[in-house]
Design goal:
Blueprint lengths: L17 H13 L14 H13 L3 E5 L2 H11 L7 E5 L5 H8 L3 E5 L9 H11 L3 E5 L8 H10 L3 E5 L7 E2 L2 E2 L6 E5 L12 E5 L2 H13 L12 H7 L12 H10 L3 H20 L4 E2 L7 E2 L4 E6 L7 H10 L5 E2 L25 H8 L1 E5 L6 H17 L3
Parallel strand pairs: 2-3, 2-4, 4-5, 5-8
Antiparallel strand pairs: 1-9, 6-7, 6-11, 8-9, 10-12, 12-14, 13-14
Helix pairs in contact: 1-9, 2-9, 3-4, 5-6, 10-13
């Protein structure tokens, strides 16, 4: 009997809403794609998006950026990080996070994780105490939100500035508070595989007026900062405007138009993602030899991807298991590979970091961690078939 094969691509996103397409076409016809190339008192798409996103996020100020990675770099700079500074960061993340630290000339101090993919707060406390770092760049990697009460407590105890990387937690919450509203600054991504899609793009949000002003000027506003949509008062800009370098990373009109059309749909889409995630979580959790973290009750997650550990598969057999699933149309990524592949990499592959530490729990957890995207183009029936294929193939590789 032939084996079932899944035929949908794991990278196929839903189309941009028609309103966004129509507005993008209007912008192309006008030829005025730059966010400051306006006619009269016309408001730019980017400034309107900043205002709307700030309201939705519950933040005072918002800057639309060219990418989530740029937003992280800018956040580090406007929070005062200078070359040689140490920056705490959880070791389970994607390469743009340590890359942003390296970009500003700082030194990553990598923190271990626990078995549920969260930053290890005990290790964070220990390294905060001895490292001298004054910034924590916390990546809510793959949507797993740590105990934010404890994280904030540690940051307050050591006078550490918390920057939240919310690339994977747009719309998620901890104790009813949106991810990104715990620290001094938050960054978000609108790269194609995130919760809103502009190909590339991102946001920086904060409630600190001076940080917001520095971010706007440094994003490349020149002296056109008044055209931004969610900014502090003019007197704040007067204080910083001649002291903030231009790093040119602002968002353009086209991407802003696409995102404005998606923002009204985001709450509905978050619920749709969780229906698919919960279906997969239930099936994977029931499989013998699979470990998948339970979500904490205080956490309101967004399930746009799912992670599990194939405990019954020997490490040396995981590439063959991944290949067998791929042959049947199921695309899994392995975070425990000794060599980085595609988007995945383990912290000890970032060789530009001096004195890479040994982080035993991170290595143990990632050794058999498999990662899978859950796009909204899937259905609940698709998730059932995907789980069937994973379970079927795993039986062939059980130790």
């Amino acid at each position: 009997m032939s084996k079932h094969v899944f035929t949908k691509p794991f990278t196929q996103q839903e189309s941009i809403p028609e309103a966004g397409i129509e507005r993008a076409v209007e912008i192309m016809r006008s030829g005025r794609l730059h966010r400051y190339n306006l006619a009269g008192d016309e408001a730019s798409e980017a400034s309107c998006l900043e205002r709307e996103y700030a309201i939705w996020q519950g933040a005072d100020y918002c800057l639309a950026c060219s990418s989530g990675g740029y937003a992280i770099q800018l956040a580090l700079r406007v929070c005062g990080v200078v070359p040689g500074d140490k920056v705490l960061a959880n070791a389970y993340t994607l390469a743009p996070v340590p890359g942003a630290i390296h970009n500003v000339g700082a030194v990553p101090v990598l923190v271990d994780i626990d078995e549920n993919y969260h930053i290890d707060c005990d290790d964070l406390d220990a390294k905060a105490k001895v490292s001298g770092a004054k910034v924590l760049l916390l990546s809510h990697m793959r949507g797993h939100i740590a105990d934010m009460d404890r994280v904030v407590e540690i940051c307050n105890a050591y006078n550490i500035c918390l920057i939240e990387d919310c690339a994977h937690t747009m719309g998620a919450k901890w104790r009813g508070i949106r991810s990104g509203n715990f620290g001094t600054v938050a960054t978000f991504s609108t790269q194609t595989y995130k919760h809103m899609n502009s190909g590339e793009g991102g946001f920086l949000t904060t409630n600190d007026p001076e940080i917001a002003a520095r971010a706007v000027v440094s994003s490349g506003s020149y002296m056109l900062y008044g055209r931004h949509g969610a900014i502090p008062a003019e007197e704040v800009f007067q204080k910083i405007r001649l002291h903030s370098p231009n790093y040119s990373g602002r968002m353009d009109q086209m991407r802003a138009a696409m995102l404005r059309a998606q923002l009204p749909e985001i709450e509905k889409n978050l619920a749709r993602w969780n229906l698919l995630y919960d279906k997969l979580h239930a099936r994977l959790s029931s499989m013998e030899g699979v470990t998948i973290p339970r979500r904490k009750q205080a956490e309101e997650y967004v399930g746009s991807s799912i992670q599990f550990r194939a405990e019954v598969v020997a490490k040396q057999s995981i590439p063959a298991f991944v290949a067998a699933c791929a042959a049947r149309g199921v695309e899994l990524k392995w975070f425990g590979d000794d060599e980085p592949k595609a988007f995945t990499s383990r912290y000890d592959s970032w060789r530009y970091i001096d004195d890479i530490p040994v982080l035993p729990t991170t290595l143990k957890v990632l050794e058999k961690t498999l990662d899978m995207r859950v796009p909204l183009t899937f259905t609940e029936a698709d998730c059932a078939l995907i789980a069937d294929i994973i379970e079927d193939e795993m039986k062939q590789f059980t130790q």
